[in-house]
Amino acid sequence: MALQEELKTQGDFLFKNRSYLPLIILVIGLLVFINTEYYEIETPDTWFSESFEYICLAVSLLGLCIRVITVARTPKNTSGRNTKDGQLAEELNTTGIYSVVRHPLYLGNFFMWLGVAMLTENAWFSIAFIFFYAFYYERIMYAEENFLRTKFGSSYLNWAEKVPAFIPSFKNYEKPKYPFSIKKVLKKEKNGLVAVFLLFWIFDMVGDFVEEKTIYFEPTFWFYGAMISGIIYLILKIMKKRKLLDESNR
């Protein structure tokens, strides 16, 4: 198989399973975190060490914000939504954040997962994650762009010539075509918020277990964050099921 076809085949497979395969990295990250905590050398606390988890949270929330900005101004059936039959795009997004970077959702995903990777407190794992992400999403982006190029032809090529794939550039910024849709954000991005706080709570509990050698419950900031975001998720899930978040062409 020629390299071009091989990259497309790999990309199509990873695209369809992009929500699940990163969980493997999460499991590896937890194991690295346990090892780091177990063999941790005690050092004096500093403002950085005491604030490190919140710095990681800020990185993850930055990624979530990028996703929110992206999803809020896109029409129906775009922005990487796939079906059982493959990719789907009824319109080419070229304005707003899409005039700054071609794959803003994947940029958002990068920061969301980077914040979690940083929680391991292992610099080598964080670096390995960055290289893995580049390898993993390069193939997904290749498959997606191959699909868009086939469907939209010269319109896609003209847009891609001006807008970078992953590192944002604001020199060709265009005002968004569609207004900000809070309903679409609540409908599509409810998973992200609860996932972030749930993962941070899991890391917090695992760290306490490794240090104390026993399982005990203590209501922390991360517990309350996971609980509140979980309640919000359930409410939005019910609203979505009852079609209270539906909008025409959004």
TrEMBL record:
<keyword id="KW-0812">Transmembrane</keyword>
<feature type="transmembrane region" description="Helical">
    <location>
        <begin position="192"/>
        <end position="209"/>
    </location>
</feature>
<feature type="transmembrane region" description="Helical">
    <location>
        <begin position="110"/>
        <end position="136"/>
    </location>
</feature>
<dbReference type="GO" id="GO:0012505">
    <property type="term" value="C:endomembrane system"/>
</dbReference>
<protein>
    <submittedName>
        <fullName>Lipid A Kdo2 1-phosphate O-methyltransferase</fullName>
    </submittedName>
</protein>
<keyword id="KW-0472">Membrane</keyword>
<dbReference type="Pfam" id="PF04191">
    <property type="entry name" value="PEMT"/>
</dbReference>
<dbReference type="InterPro" id="IPR007318">
    <property type="entry name" value="Phopholipid_MeTrfase"/>
</dbReference>
<feature type="transmembrane region" description="Helical">
    <location>
        <begin position="51"/>
        <end position="72"/>
    </location>
</feature>
<keyword id="KW-1133">Transmembrane helix</keyword>
<dbReference type="GO" id="GO:0016740">
    <property type="term" value="F:transferase activity"/>
</dbReference>
<feature type="transmembrane region" description="Helical">
    <location>
        <begin position="221"/>
        <end position="239"/>
    </location>
</feature>
<feature type="transmembrane region" description="Helical">
    <location>
        <begin position="20"/>
        <end position="39"/>
    </location>
</feature>
